[in-house]
Design brief:
single chain, mainly alpha, 83% helix, 0% strand, globular
Length: 325
């Protein structure tokens, strides 16, 4: 109950902050910038995001054991939708269950590959964030470097910790005990004899596959930079593809650091304003970029969540019919 209240308060505060920042940037120039992007720009942004989903699905597939790519793609699509619109923890849990159901593999195996995939993606984001900061550094004025060093370090800390935890067997054993209820939902209860820690270690032992997954995730991140650059070009902002990478990389780092805030409400807008100011983007342009990306998230994410809930509802009805309930 307390957790739900805290989440609700965080979401309300984030939305309030986002609205305040949008009003301060100027409603009219922001709407004008969004109109400049238009439906064509939104379509191009969604198309590039689908490329990212395909690349991330390929990365996930690389660490599985002969799982159908279609199952990885659909599960990744569902994860992105749930993670973006609801929250990372929910998105990762739903996607693991989706992979287990869609691929027909064991729930424990689906959970293990999900843990490794999320960890490898976190490592790739750390690399991407450092590259983004390196590209932003030449734009910093004297005296700004230390502040940005602290900001980037704070953003990277939870991402690096996430990867480090999955490399520790002791942490994985503890995680398995905490996740037994979730594992039962995946069909791998305590009595199944499934060893989550060993499964994760086995996947990490396949270094070539993990390396391929890391490279695919890094390339997937760059599609986000291309999206920011396309939006900026449509608006008429003075932004290069490298500026787009710096902007996208650091905003994503801020979103990951604020994972407790649903939908990263207010965090994404603040990130665009903060980094955009260094890149000489107007506040209206920065807010417009953020809102276009949020539009993309709704267009691609809402159908994914709806499709999964419909599928779960149908499975529930079939289960009741079979048990006579």
């Amino acid at each position: 109950m307390i957790r739900r209240i805290g989440t609700g308060v965080a979401f309300f505060a984030g939305v309030t902050l986002a609205v305040f920042l949008a009003i301060r940037a100027g409603v009219k120039p922001t709407l004008h910038a969004i109109a400049a992007v238009g439906w064509t720009g939104l379509f191009e942004t969604c198309a590039l995001q689908l490329v990212s989903v395909v690349l991330c699905a390929a990365a996930w597939w690389a660490v599985t054991d002969k799982t159908a790519f279609r199952a990885c793609f659909l599960s990744r699509w569902i994860r992105d939708g749930a993670t973006t619109l609801v929250g990372p923890a929910i998105g990762e849990g739903i996607s693991a269950r989706a992979l287990a159901v869609l691929s027909g593999t064991g729930g424990g195996a689906a959970a293990a590959t999900t843990i490794v995939d999320v960890a490898v993606e976190a490592l790739s984001q750390a690399v991407y964030t450092l590259v983004a900061f390196a590209l932003l550094f030449p734009h910093l004025r004297p005296g700004q470097s230390l502040r940005w060093d602290v900001i980037v370090a704070a953003s990277l800390l939870p991402v690096i910790l996430m990867f480090a935890v999955t490399m520790s067997r002791r942490a994985l054993v503890v995680a398995q005990k905490l996740a037994e209820k979730v594992a039962r939902a995946f069909g791998a209860g305590p009595g199944s004899g499934f060893d989550l820690a060993r499964a994760v270690e086995t996947i990490y032992g396949k270094r070539a596959r993990v390396g391929a997954a890391l490279c695919l995730h890094i390339v997937a991140w760059t599609t986000g930079a291309a999206q920011v650059w396309l939006i900026g070009r449509a608006i008429g902002a003075p932004i290069t593809i490298w500026d787009g990478l710096a902007l996208h990389g650091l905003v994503c780092a801020a979103r990951s650091a604020a994972f407790l805030v649903p939908w990263a409400a207010g965090v994404q807008e603040g990130g665009f304003l903060l980094v955009g100011a260094v890149l000489h983007l107007s506040p209206a342009t920065a807010i417009a970029m953020s809102l276009v990306l949020r539009g993309r998230d709704v267009v691609l994410g809402a159908p994914a969540i709806l499709a999964w809930y419909v599928a779960e509802a149908r499975r529930g009805l079939v289960r009741r019919a079979e048990t006579g309930g």
